[in-house]
Amino acid sequence: MAKAKINYVCTQCGAIQPKWMGKCPDCGSWNTLTENIEEPVSRFSSSSVVSKHGCVVQKLEQINSNEEQRYLTQMQELNRVLGGGIVPGSVILLSGDPGIGKSTLLLQICQTISSDAQILYISGEESLKQIKLRAMRMGEFTDDLSLLCETNLNTIRSVIEQRKPEVVIIDSIQTMYSEEVNSAPGSVSQVRESTNVLMQLAKGLNISIFIVGHVTKEGT
What we know:
Layout: E1 5-10, E2 16-17, E3 33-38, H1 76-81, E4 91-96, H2 102-113, E5 119-123, H3 128-138, E6 145-149, H4 153-163, E7 167-171, H5 188-205, E8 208-214
């Protein structure tokens, strides 16, 4: 059986080094290298996500570009930024400084498209009561909006696969963690692994996923 590979990942720039050093040679930060254990079997091959469309190879002229349904919001500028609406199977990153209004904007999106799509809002920062109070200040919502307070990536993946919503919101990616990664939530390794799993879910189940990413004080 192959041995697990040990390397060291910089929490600032994400660079991978074969051995520990006090200073990261890529970004120059001190004491930012953390141990990362890579299993001999790729984590990507063990994913339980199975595409409902199957593995089909098509020629370019056989693909109908008009067959994908887009979810239109009542915000014309947002529709423009998204290329005409929310595309199924897409992963969208919403980033900005803490407190700038990312969660409020996402609730407004839920308010405008919940009549057309089943939405699952997953929060790792606020309680369900806090989200409910903000939603009450914004107005009425349909019953197609469901809330989940969870940070464990394996649990989140199971819920998404069982409920199969059309739109999923992850608030925020820095709070999510995978038990297969030996580092703290918010680290480069955890963010990378969580994003990869969510991207597999989006492509495999043909759902749209919004990911909230906080910009730190250093602007990263």
